[in-house]
Design a protein that fits this description.
The complex is a heterodimer of chains A (442) and B (420).
Chain A: H1 2-23, E1 26-33, E2 41-49, E3 52-58, E4 67-78, E5 80-85, H2 113-120, E6 123-128, E7 136-144, H3 150-153, E8 154-164, H4 173-211, H5 217-223, H6 239-251, E9 257-261, H7 264-277, E10 281-285, H8 293-299, E11 303-304, E12 310-314, E13 321-325, H9 326-332, H10 354-363, H11 368-373, H12 377-382, E14 400-403, E15 414-419, E16 422-426, H13 431-437
Parallel strand pairs in A: 1-4, 5-6, 8-9, 9-10, 10-11
Antiparallel strand pairs in A: 1-2, 2-3, 4-14, 6-7, 7-8, 12-13, 14-15, 15-16
Helix pairs in contact in A: 4-6
Chain B: H1 2-16, E1 24-28, E2 30-31, E3 42-47, E4 50-55, E5 65-68, E6 73-76, E7 78-83, H2 113-120, E8 123-128, E9 136-144, H3 150-153, E10 154-164, H4 190-206, H5 213-218, E11 224-228, H6 231-244, E12 249-252, H7 260-265, E13 270-272, H8 292-299, E14 303-305, H9 310-319, H10 324-330, H11 333-338, E15 356-359, E16 370-375, E17 378-381, H12 398-406
Parallel strand pairs in B: 1-5, 2-6, 7-8, 10-11, 11-12, 12-13, 13-14
Antiparallel strand pairs in B: 1-3, 3-4, 6-15, 8-9, 9-10, 15-16, 16-17
Helix pairs in contact in B: 9-10
Classes of the chains: A alpha/beta (442), B alpha/beta (420).
Chain lengths: 442, 420
């Protein structure tokens, strides 16, 4: 009893302060606003209330109770969206090649360096997607890059199923694809059977209703379309049922498919699978897939480029060297770009940064506007979270980044990263960065 | 588009004129010479593969071919001071630990793609060293990254003697279980590495009349490069160097920023290894420090950069705190000086080789592209298309014509008959 008497007031106090904090509006006075949706504004104001963007414009009246961040002379734009990255999870691939029921949510550790680095580099939303070497590798989730617990971070729990067309080390492409088709066919049969059963049940219910108007309508409703929420059906008892449930929601279009294509021939397979099984496909491309640029353009499927944007290859027959500039090839084929980033040791100097990938695209002829969209709104659309993030518009989440200058300039740094109206990164407080730049200071 | 236009222009230039020895004139918006103040606008006269003259206003020689590069910015061809570029097969002799008279010259495949990639990034000169697995590895050279005739391509076959004082030579003992193997290697720890080096130096010293490579190097006739990354390895080589009175160039130097004062007072230059932007520790568990270059420069240490993507490294170094002109010097004249070829390359000034990189904007922006690369007065990037498409000479040159109108044209008193 004694315990409760102290905890209740504390709890109440906590709730109250939380509410006060949430209720206090935030106003950012920006030297320049790049909203992505719409033209850039000079000397714009962004009003934030309850973690959402309330208004973006010039000369807006700032509420008297608002906390003001003066970003005069600085550039404010939506937080970057990392469209495909396994780095947020602890182990990206499974030994079992068929695990559609697994979810990265169980593997996301908010304290990972990846999330810290993301906030430091202006990434506010990230799709955590299983790796490229599992046939059906589990479900991706879209998360914010800030939060204490994974549940605070989730923006979209069932963001898509990862499928890889690259066979594992002990399988051939033929058997890999045959296995994949077998799984898809199994799910398709199940979906068909389920649909038929429901139609019969519905017919029976209607018949019964006609006979007895007091029939319990509710039960039938609950049964119909039992897979409306992908998560709901995952409580199935056996792993075979779990597998099937996940695959069914893929075929019903409730989840998109991230299909990894290692090379150009995989792209053609991916497009064929998409047509055959009516998948909502997102193509995750290896560096060699540039050869299928025309097919990709014709398919109009969204694409995610690999982190290596420029590379050399030698024709094994003629010995001729060729420099491949991937963003240029895709841009010339009018394919909208999005980029991956990677932090492995063999990655090139800048491929850890989304802004660097965008700058590289600009270097090879892509316009600045297009490049900025490809790291903000476009990935948000591909992930199906553009009603929440990706641009600075009223009603969207207040996820934004305050930059010291133009986003693609060499000397521009992320000053502050804001997620849901909260400052989650502040360069002035970044001791680690200070150590990297000025090692003598400490 | 811009690059394509240049290709056309080059084709135009070669398509119309004879291939004789007439002067080539480059006109651009700006030139950073790595030698004096920037020249704006910039005119460079190239004669017989060398820079004959450069300035903002120059009387053009008669019959010269003028290539107007519009808004382009010119910088000297970049010099990568340390690499294993083009080495075919192993870069270290594994049956011995001391191979001072091994010449890297014998191991290079001059057709290697690595050279093509380097040229494409604007690197026109490269220092090539044997690998790091031996205590004393052999003789490095300095060469151009492009050129048909090997004799002219190699600037200095003996640019210096390379040794390693790091964990590499001690970690290559592949025959611990087979003491009779020919691959048995002695040093298995750092003490062993230093002991071997000392013994070799003492051996060379003992014989006053020694004409060996090591003796020559110790007498100052040859540069000594020492690969050392951790602060304690750098301290060790500094100590050994003091003892035997020589002045090595530190290569790698991942923790050299900790010894900036020492390196400055002892006047030991540093060729920094590839810049890492990762926050994870390096191969020898070295500090991930982004602004090594800036810290060293501030203390007065001579720095050069090495490794892949030289210009990109210099850009990141500027982002992390190095002054832009120091960054340009660190990939041009400083490495040229270290390699002992600064009379030939590393700056844009009269008398130097006409190795020029044409950029489509500020050198220190990530969005700036290398538009053309000229080595010894000839366009290497984009490739010389004389033989392939001579018919293109008749096409118009879009952006260049516009570029030349939009800015005050330099005095062009006697432009050649074929100038655009």
């Amino acid at each position: 009893m004694k315990h409760r008497s102290t905890t209740i007031p504390l709890l109440l106090w906590g709730l109250l302060t939380a509410q006060i904090a949430a209720a206090q509006p935030l106003a950012i006075k920006a030297g320049r606003v790049i909203p992505i949706a719409g033209k850039p504004l000079e000397d714009g104001v962004i009003l934030i209330r309850d973690g959402k963007i309330d208004a973006v414009g010039k000369g807006l009246a700032i509420p008297i109770d608002a906390k003001v961040i003066d970003a005069g002379g600085k550039t404010v734009m939506p937080g970057f969206v990392d469209v495909h990255n396994p780095s947020g999870m602890s182990q990206a691939n499974e030994r079992n090649q068929n695990v559609p029921f697994l979810s990265v949510v169980d593997s996301i550790d908010p304290s990972r360096t990846y999330f810290k680095e993301s906030r430091r580099n202006g990434v506010t939303t990230a799709a955590v997607v299983p790796g490229n070497s599992t046939m059906i590798g589990g479900q991706a989730a879209v998360v914010k890059t800030a939060g204490r617990y994974v549940d605070d971070m989730i923006l979209k729990r069932h963001a898509g199923l990862k499928i890889s067309l690259s066979p594992g080390s002990n399988a051939s492409r033929m058997s890999h694809l045959a296995n994949l088709r077998k799984e898809l066919d199994k799910a398709r049969r199940a979906v068909k059977k389920e649909d038929e059963e429901q139609r019969e049940k519905k017919d029976a219910v209607e018949k019964k209703n006609a006979e007895d108007k007091d029939a319990d309508q509710g039960q039938a409703d609950r049964d119909a379309g039992g897979v409306a929420k992908p998560g709901a059906s995952f409580n199935a008892a056996s792993s075979a049922e779990q597998q099937l449930a996940a695959m069914k929601s893929l075929l019903r279009g409730q989840m998109s498919a991230f299909i990894y294509c290692q090379n150009a021939m995989d792209v053609v397979q991916a497009i064929r699978l998409t047509e055959q099984y009516k998948l909502k496909t997102i193509l995750v491309l290896g560096q060699d897939c540039y050869r299928a640029a025309q097919e990709i353009a014709a398919s109009k499927l969204p694409v995610i480029l690999g982190e290596t944007l420029v590379f050399w290859k030698t024709d094994p027959r003629t010995g001729d060297d060729e420099k491949i500039v991937v963003p240029k090839i895709f841009h010339e084929n009018k394919i909208p770009l999005t980029f991956q980033i990677n932090d492995t040791s063999n990655a090139t100097l800048g491929s850890r940064y989304l802004w660097y990938q965008a700058a590289t695209a600009v270097k090879y002829g892509v316009s600045v506007e297009e490049a900025l969209e490809s790291i903000t709104l476009r990935p948000a659309k591909i992930l199906g979270v553009d009603q929440f993030v990706g641009s600075l518009e009223p009603g969207k989440d207040a996820d934004l980044v305050i930059l010291s200058g133009h986003p693609l300039k060499l000397n521009t740094w992320v000053e502050k990263t804001i997620v849901g109206g909260e400052v989650v990164y502040d360069r002035e407080q970044d001791q680690e960065l200070r150590g990297l730049l000025d090692p003598q200071a400490d | 588009m811009y690059r394509f236009a240049i290709a056309l222009l080059v084709a135009f230039h070669f398509g119309c004129g004879s291939t004789g020895a007439e002067d080539l004139v480059l006109m651009a918006a700006k030139a950073y010479t790595a030698h004096g103040p920037a020249i704006e606008p910039a005119v460079i006269v190239i004669r017989d593969g060398k820079i004959a003259e450069l300035g903002a206003k120059i009387e053009l020689p008669a019959g010269a071919h003028v290539v107007d590069l519009g808004d382009a910015v010119l910088v000297p061809g970049f010099v990568n001071a340390y690499s294993q570029m083009g080495i075919s097969g192993g870069s270290s002799e594994l049956t011995r630990e001391l191979t001072p008279d091994f010449e890297v010259l014998a191991a290079i495949d001059w057709e290697s793609r690595a050279f093509r990639e380097a040229v494409d990034e604007g690197v026109t000169t490269v220092g090539i060293s044997p690998g790091t697995d031996n205590v004393v590895a052999g003789i490095a050279l300095a060469a151009k990254t492009h050129g048909k005739e090997l004799r002219r391509r190699v600037l200095r076959p003996n640019a210096g003697l390379v040794m390693t004082l790091a964990s590499d030579p001690r970690s290559r003992n592949r025959s611990r279980s087979r003491p009779d193997s020919i691959y048995v290697r002695q040093p298995t720890n750092r003490m062993g590495v230093v002991w071997m080096l000392r013994r070799a130096i003492q051996g060379a010293r003992r014989d006053e009349s020694a004409s060996g490579v090591l003796a020559e190097a110790l007498q100052g006739e040859r540069r000594i490069y020492c690969v050392s990354r951790t602060h304690f390895d750098i301290e060790t080589i500094a100590r050994v160097a003091e003892e035997f009175d020589f002045a090595p160039v530190i290569v790698g130097g991942e923790e050299s920023h900790r010894l900036a004062e020492l390196l400055a007072t002892r006047k030991l230059p540093v060729i920094l290894g590839p810049l890492r932007t990762s926050v994870a520790a390096g191969t020898e568990q070295t500090d991930p420090v982004w602004n090594r270059a800036g810290v060293l420069r501030q203390a007065g240490v001579q720095i050069a950069m090495s490794g892949p993507s030289l210009l990109e490294q210099a850009r990141f170094a500027v982002r992390f705190g190095l002054a832009a002109d120091d960054a340009l010097r660190a990939i041009t004249c400083v490495p040229a000086g270290i390699l002992g070829i600064d009379e030939r390359v590393g700056t844009l000034q009269a008398g130097r080789d006409a190795d020029v990189v044409v950029l489509d904007g500020d050198p220190f922006e990530f969005t700036t592209n290398v538009q053309a690369v000229i080595i010894g007065g000839a366009f290497v990037v984009p490739p010389d298309r004389r033989t392939r498409e001579p018919g293109e000479a008749n096409q118009t040159v879009g952006r260049h014509a516009a570029g030349s109108q939009s800015r005050p044209a330099p005095q062009r008193t006697q432009s050649g008959p074929n100038s655009p």
